[in-house]
Amino acid sequence: MPDRRQPDPSTDDNPFAAPPEGRPDQPWQPRQPQRPRDGGGPSGPKPGGGGQEPGGPARWDPMDPVQRRARYAMLAGMWGFFFGIFGIPSVGLLLGALAMYWGISALRGRPATPADPAKGTPARPGGLAALGPAARPQRAAAVSGMVSATLALLLAGASYGLQLAYKDFYVCRDDALTQTAELQCNTLLPDNMIGNVLKVQR
């Protein structure tokens, strides 16, 4: 009777190794992760944690109205500032006002609710503290939106103020039919830095 070789222990964990002689074929099964020798479980996200480690960055929840308003404030303030720079004060004024409203409402957050023993609901904090880990990025978004909204409102106000202060120049420039007539409107401007900025260039 021929001598059979004993299975090599080093090939027990090799999925490509041939099975030992005499063992029947078995269906394929996924390999189970091996636990460390110290007895600890494998590290990774916990079930129900959304793939986040404790204390990690919180994801943005688009279903939360407070977080939506913070992002709206940031975007509206940024675009309001750009429209103010590009010389469209009406759009900049609108977006700046919306950004201020959304930013203030986002910073105020939701009102606090007391605990209800009858329903078993715990007390909830008010303001941005109710968002938990997501409060910090939303506060930063709301504040940045309000800062850019302030700049947009200042640009729009300055533009409208110049149009009121030098109304004769703007009316003359808009009614001019030729470039020569448009250049004559520069005489209605003061001889200072503002006049040099607003005057019609040759």
Written overview of the protein:
The chain is an all-alpha fold. Helices cover 46% and strands 0% of the residues. Helix 1 (65-85) runs antiparallel to helix 2, helix 1 (65-85) runs parallel beside helix 3 and helix 2 (89-108) packs antiparallel against helix 3.
What would a concise description of this structure say?
The protein is mainly α and 202 residues long. It has 6 helices and no strands.
Task: Sum up the structure in keywords.
single chain, 202 residues, 6 helices, 0% strand, elongated
What global shape is seen?
elongated
Main sheet makeup:
none
Cα-to-Cα separation, first versus last residue:
111 Å
Radius of gyration: 34 Å
Indicate the mean pLDDT.
74
Task: List the topology elements.
Elements: H1 65-85, H2 89-108, H3 135-165, H4 167-175, H5 179-184, H6 193-198
Helix pairs in contact: 1-2, 1-3, 2-3
